């Protein structure tokens, strides 16, 4: 067994590998860019080596420096994680040539499966179901349109070396095929250094279901059941689960056997994933094989009780698989939510900056455990007070739960999300909460078009209505009580005998958009210390009483307790909307901004005029922090609605800004190469 390994990656996957290596008694070496000097993976490793400046092409993609770091530190093997060099044939071969074990498949397997065009031909030879398409590199956008017309729309335009949703577009007509080809080429060239593009038929109403495989150097290969990955946004997975709520045991077996056949055809050694698109009649077709560890591997670990990172290390060290297909378990139901640094209420734009607070929910399960126990697990590469840089992907953490069945897993995930505190950057948690509460998701009735269908116009607060809005109002009243009692106690120290008596009647003003506020009358009976408080909410639909027993310390973001005897977890923020008296209550993805006031104060508050924000319609503003890579207009230029104005790069994705109306450019306020802040002006129109 290895004594020391180097992890050629960053973030949560580097921390994940370190956890298993530590369990196995293996020393670890981290590598880092200047942006990650204080990162969690650097602190967890036994040693750390600097690679270079923040951009990945100047750090994490430098194979020479990584090999040099391994030699310098005496590392016998390199684990590439996922992304970066994990599926780079040349890097795997270089490791072999340098006498360093690559903890992944052999270079020939990466070459065979990393090229999507070649992999489809190999899959056909191995008698694996494949999708109709054009499997050779396409030389031009015009040729792409001709091929798409021949196959029949809709089609998928894909980069041969693509992955992670990059270099992929779905086209429904000639215009989309023409534009999609160019966009895929640019993304693929920038992300992978390979701009070859191919086209295949797009299966409508498809499911994305993948099979985890594991092979060794003795010719053994097994499949470790499937993962359901159909909940996707722009081809990026959002929620993954294992097993799938859709396929039958017969389909599972057929898919698994085909995946193993493909793995054996390329003499696969290590953990890998064969991805399939599955139609409504459970007909399935090969998409691609990912020759690396997947982001969503924890859900497989929890239903099988296997540590996949440990298996990869053992196989790379020359060990034989210690189990057969008959030994593979499938117990309970596991689910994973990817918690990303993006703002779902602003069209999921990237959100970078400092994590002012980062408090994951309590964990029952750890990364390196080989167990099928029920509970909660958090895989992350960040810490409280850390930074989310603009140079890499947007993932903050992966939240994984294991329940006895699917509904139990959903319930556990919803409660865990309620207790996941993230401040300083926006996160995808409200969107995850909305998805988990959606009736069709809960029933398992969905496909890869689920998000596009149900959130076609984006995501807003209206998409996360609370099942019991009165509970949020009552909780705001109880939380306000904590601050009032503290103020009374301080007041009593200075004006003993003159402090105001406690109140029982309050008006709760819930702040709406553009001054559209709602006012609700409530009555509070505090009860004795240690006992439940009783809040009666006098809403238009009638009165409802809530008995709330809270466990909360002033200054804490998380609130736990019981409401009418049922446990709950919620979150609290003060000082929202530039008002230190505003209380934000967050539960099940819903955010309620409230002012808890004396009734007379509420009367006066109703009379306050609404101050509208300044008109910024003549400006093109940066919707996110990022790097301005192109300004496509100049002062005095006439621009039509829909024309390209600027391109911003953030978290490895290009974001194109278009003119919303016809106009003439008055001034260009930012230049190519500038680092932009949110809402920074780029172009002003006359």
Characterization of this structure:
It is a single chain. The chain is an alpha+beta fold and 686 residues long. It is 27% helix and 32% strand. It has 17 helices and 39 strands. The chain has an eight-stranded antiparallel β-sheet, sandwiched between helices. It has an eight-stranded antiparallel β-barrel with strand order 24-25-26-27-28-29-30-31. A five-stranded parallel β-sheet has the order 3-2-1-4-5. A hairpin with a 2-residue loop joins strand 35 and strand 36 (653-658). The protein is globular, with a radius of gyration of 27 Å. The N and C termini lie far apart (69 Å).
- Low-confidence parts, pLDDT < 50 over ≥5 residues? none
Quaternary organisation: single chain
Q: What is the makeup of the main sheet?
A: 8 strands, antiparallel
Strand content: 25-35%
What's the alpha carbon Rg, rounded to whole Å?
A: 27 Å
Counted by DSSP, the helix tally is 17
Mean pLDDT across every amino acid position: 92
> How far is the N terminus from the C terminus?
69 Å
Count all strands and give the number: 39
**What is the molecular shape?**
globular
- Binned, the helix content reads 25-40%
Give the class from helix and strand content and strand pairing.
Answer: alpha+beta
In spatial order, strands of the major sheet run 14-13-10-11-12-15-22-20
């Amino acid at each position: 067994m290895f004594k020391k390994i180097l992890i050629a990656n960053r973030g949560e996957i580097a921390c994940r590998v370190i956890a298993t290596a530590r369990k196995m008694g293996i020393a670890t070496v981290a590598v880092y860019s200047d942006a990650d000097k204080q990162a969690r993976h650097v602190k967890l490793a036994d040693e750390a080596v600097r690679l270079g400046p923040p951009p990945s092409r100047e750090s994490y993609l430098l194979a020479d420096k990584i090999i040099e770091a391994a030699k310098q530190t005496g590392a016998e093997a390199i684990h590439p994680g996922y992304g970066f060099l994990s599926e780079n044939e040349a890097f795997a071969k270089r490791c072999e040539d340098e006498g360093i074990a690559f903890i992944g498949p052999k270079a020939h397997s990466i070459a065979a499966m990393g090229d999507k065009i070649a992999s489809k031909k190999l899959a056909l030879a191995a008698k694996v179901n494949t999708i109709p398409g054009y499997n050779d590199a396409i030389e031009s956008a015009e040729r792409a349109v001709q091929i798409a017309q021949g196959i029949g729309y809709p089609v998928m335009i894909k980069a041969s070396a693509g992955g992670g949703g990059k270099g992929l577009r779905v086209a429904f007509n000639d215009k989309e095929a023409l534009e999609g080809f160019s966009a895929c080429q640019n993304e693929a060239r920038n992300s992978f250094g390979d701009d070859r593009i191919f086209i295949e038929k797009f299966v409508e109403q498809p499911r994305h279901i993948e099979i985890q495989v594991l092979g060794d150097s003795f010719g053994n290969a097994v499949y470790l059941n499937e993962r359901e990955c159909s909940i996707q946004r722009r081809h990026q997975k959002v929620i993954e689960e294992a097993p799938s709520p859709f396929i039958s045991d017969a389909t599972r077996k057929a898919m698994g056997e085909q995946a193993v056949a493909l793995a054996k055809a390329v003499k696969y050694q290590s953990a890998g994933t064969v991805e399939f698109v599955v139609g409504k009649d459970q007909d399935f077709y090969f998409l691609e094989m990912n020759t690396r560890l997947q982001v969503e591997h924890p859900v497989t670990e929890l239903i099988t009780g296997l540590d996949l990172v440990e298996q990869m290390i053992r196989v790379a060290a020359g060990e034989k698989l210690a189990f057969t297909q008959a030994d593979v378990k499938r117990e309970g139901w596991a689910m994973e939510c990817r918690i990303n640094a993006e703002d779902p209420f602003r069209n999921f734009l990237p959100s970078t900056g400092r994590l002012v607070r980062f408090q994951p929910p309590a964990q029952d399960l750890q990364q390196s455990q080989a167990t099928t126990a029920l509970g909660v697990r958090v895989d992350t590469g960040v810490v409280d007070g850390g930074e989310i840089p603009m140079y890499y992907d947007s993932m903050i953490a992966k939240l994984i739960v294991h329940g006895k069945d699917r509904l139990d897993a959903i319930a556990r995930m919803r409660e865990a999300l309620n207790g996941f505190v993230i401040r300083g950057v926006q996160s995808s948690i409200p969107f995850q909460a909305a998805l988990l509460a959606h009736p069709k998701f809960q029933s398992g009735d969905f496909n890869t078009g689920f998000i596009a269908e149900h959130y076609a116009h984006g995501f807003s607060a209206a998409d996360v209505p609370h099942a019991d809005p009165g509970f949020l109002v009552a909780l705001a009243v109880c939380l306000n009580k904590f601050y009032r009692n503290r103020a009374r106690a301080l007041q009593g120290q200075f004006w003993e005998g003159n402090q105001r008596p406690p109140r029982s009647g309050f008006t709760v003003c819930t702040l709406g958009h553009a001054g559209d506020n709602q006012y609700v009358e409530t009555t509070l009976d505090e009860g004795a210390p240690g006992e439940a408080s009783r809040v009666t909410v006098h809403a238009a639909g009638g009165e409802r009483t809530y008995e709330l027993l809270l466990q909360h310390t002033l200054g804490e973001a998380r609130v736990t307790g019981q409401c009418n005897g049922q446990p709950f977890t919620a979150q609290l923020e003060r000082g929202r909307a530039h008002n230190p008296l505003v209380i934000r209550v967050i539960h099940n993805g819903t955010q309620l901004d409230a002012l808890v006031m004396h009734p007379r104060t509420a009367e006066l508050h109703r009379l306050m005029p609404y101050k509208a924000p300044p008109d910024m319609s003549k400006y093109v503003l940066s919707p996110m922090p990022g790097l301005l890579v192109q300004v496509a207009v100049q002062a005095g230029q006439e621009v039509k609605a829909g024309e390209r104005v600027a391109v911003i790069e953030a978290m490895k994705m290009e974001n194109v800004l278009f003119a919303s109306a016809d106009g003439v450019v008055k001034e260009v306020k930012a230049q190519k190469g500038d680092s932009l802040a949110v809402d920074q002006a780029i172009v002003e129109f006359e």
